[in-house]
Amino acid sequence: EDKVVQSPLSLVVHEGDTVTLNCSYEVTNFRSLLWYKQEKKAPTFLFMLTSSGIEKKSGRLSSILDKKELFSILNITATQTGDSAVYLCAYFGNEKLTFGTGTRLTIIP
Amino acid sequence: EAQVTQNPRYLITVTGKKLTVTCSQNMNHEYMSWYRQDPGLGLRQIYYSMNVEVTDKGDVPEGYKVSRKEKRNFPLILESPSPNQTSLYFCASKYTGTRSSPLHFGNGTRLTVT
Fold it and tell me: Is B42 in Cβ contact with A96 (below 8 Å)?
């Protein structure tokens, strides 16, 4: 059965710290891996990765996919209180998005 | 503005009373899907549709029905709701052309079945 495992389940850091969130996956028909940020409402899209070793970057956030080792990481540098959220990793394959249970990130001012 | 619109945002109902949650997207996306989100279980797919008149079961389809008569609309129907269907529901859509594209989510419907 396809699955996505995220770690850690929760993380508390101080503002200004750098964090790394992990996502490993086991899939039968991989097409792409996505990262979403969820605050109190709908998940909002951050990155989509479809090729091995490609790094996507947007401001303080970056992500890389390793298709050989079947994992992805999401980095956030110089964290701010507005980064507090649940971060969801998901892969798209077999016509559906399969999500991990997320990492709850809390930034302390 | 490109968006996925769900209604209602909040719904409280009683066991057995049929209800429909509407979903509409204005991005001309072929693919639409429903998810439910529960604590500790994450987001799980209920049903999805690749295009008009094409629907298929996701991971947790029991107790739900869908229809796709028009490209923009994908309603979720609970014929006889039960308390275990109390959850946060999300509708989502995406483009399925030759390029990969992310799934865009509606703002969610919080359903309580008593």
Answer: no
